[in-house]
Amino acid sequence: MACFAAPAAVAIVTIIVQRVVKKKEEKEGAGSAQQHARILGKWTKRLRWLNTMLWGGVILLAFEHIWHGEVVPWPPFLTAVETPGEVGPMLREILTYGLTMTLVILVAWGILVGIAEFAERRVGAQSPTDAENTEIGGGA
Amino acid sequence: MWLLITAFAAVLVTTLWYMSPPADKYRLGFLSLIYWGATLMWLVDHVMAYAQEGGAFFEIDARATGLGVSVLILGLVVWLIRLIIADPKRITKAILGSRER
Fold first, then answer.
1. A109-124: pLDDT as tens digits
2. Would an 8 Å CB–CB cutoff place A118 in contact with chain B?
3. Are B33 and A140 in contact, with CB atoms under 8 Å apart?
């Protein structure tokens, strides 16, 4: 019905978090050139992976809901709101399905960050400069 | 069916991303994350619906296939917009620059 509303709400928060972290990293990276290269964008990039997964999922799920006629382009946008007795199940679906979806995305992102951190440390032990270039998710 | 199609696209694009140079010039990492995000969300949706309501796990018919293909195209469109904005080969810039002159 509208399960994508929960990840969408979280994605709005994580976009704000990403902006704050970016500003913080830019401030911290104002030191030496090497320190700047290491710090700048590390968590901004990682939060961008999370945001891409969340927004990507939300956009494609919203399309699926439009396809199934559960979301319409005119107010109140959700057909369940207009149907008597459907508001309760819709809210329950947002809370159960939506929150579980968000949780699964967060866990997947956590695994991704864990792998990136592990790879960075492993490469860093071999060559400190190579560690700075290690990245997962590319320009995502 | 759309879950299967999106999951297949996610695996395929991730493989292409892995085989591409580390710089990820064409932002394949971005496309793979879009498809993985949707795949995981639909997987949760399918598992929970199956656990609560039962029935068939996958909807395999022409309509569901149509939705799967449409979802793939939408993901590609989002990626293409991002790619044109990033303009890694500076093609858009060159075209716009030549028109201005």
1. 999 999 999 988 888 7
2. no
3. yes
